[in-house]
Design a protein that fits this description.
- By secondary structure, this protein is mainly alpha-helical.
- The protein has one domain.
């Protein structure tokens, strides 16, 4: 049996969406058994992606309207793209960083499998709406934060789960309200599943961020604030889903940073 991190790297490099997700599910079903988690692997500069969708600047991504079937399909395409990238981000967290406890790797394998499930749910509804993944252009910048946090697992745990994924907690209820108003109850139910699971993903990131701060003798709030000032000098903008963030393990001191916005 090859080592889990090596298999995760192979999944990350797979360019075919169906093959990537099938490989993630197979790895998860195998129980994420590890032989050795200490070995260094050469990092993946770019994850495997299908030829479509075309990746473009955010300003060129089609606008999303909730009032028409076509507009909702464009929205679901954007969500599918986020979920596909979330699979890659979870796999990268496994194969890029060595020397973490075994549970770190099995936690992120679980995240990768759940993100693959989310992609399948969204893609099925996207097809119901008359479109498939790859039919629209998509945002090219979702891998940026992965690159910016490539050198330090602490930075990764702070900024991908606790900023990017946590932003999903903030915006999802508003999207659901608009979808409900448009009469798309099935899309609302899919986002219920995603929101539930994403709370768990943010909690995993928060747990390992606090673990690493404890290992390094750092104050988590000061460390988090410093990383926000470095990568988001203009600050984070609300509204914030404080209930979901609290469920995801943000401490009272961390929550105070958002309540001040």
């Amino acid at each position: 049996m090859s080592e889990l991190r090596e298999q995760a790297r192979e999944c990350l490099l797979s360019a075919d969406a169906d093959e990537k997700l099938a490989a993630v599910r197979a790895l998860s079903a195998a129980g994420g058994k590890l032989l050795d988690i200490s070995s260094d692997l050469s990092p993946v500069a770019e994850p495997g992606r299908p030829d479509r969708p075309e990746l473009v600047a955010g300003s060129r991504v089609p606008r999303r309207s909730f009032s028409s079937r076509q507009g909702r399909a464009v929205l679901m395409h954007a969500i599918a793209h986020i979920e596909f990238n979330a699979v890659n981000l979870a796999l990268d967290a496994i194969c890029r960083f060595s020397g973490m406890p075994e549970k770190y790797y099995t936690d992120w394998l679980r995240v990768a499998e759940e993100e693959a499930y989310h992609f399948d749910l969204v893609r099925a509804h996207l097809r119901h709406l008359g479109m498939d993944y790859g039919d629209c252009s998509a945002h090219a910048g979702l891998w940026d934060m992965c690159e910016k946090t490539a050198d330090d697992v602490l930075d990764r745990m702070a900024l991908v789960p606790s900023v990017l994924e946590a932003r999903g907690l903030d915006v999802t209820p508003g999207i659901q309200d608009k979808l409900a108003h448009a009469g798309d109850a099935h899309a609302v139910s899919i986002l219920d599943v995603i929101l539930r699971d994403e709370i768990g993903h943010v909690a995993i990131g928060s747990h390992w961020f606090h673990y690493l701060c404890d290992q390094r003798g750092l104050d988590p709030v000061s460390a988090f604030r410093g990383l926000l000032e470095k990568h988001y000098p203009k600050g984070l903008f609300g509204p914030f889903n404080l209930d979901a963030r609290e469920q995801a393990g943000f401490t009272k001191r961390e929550m105070a940073m958002f309540r001040q916005k």
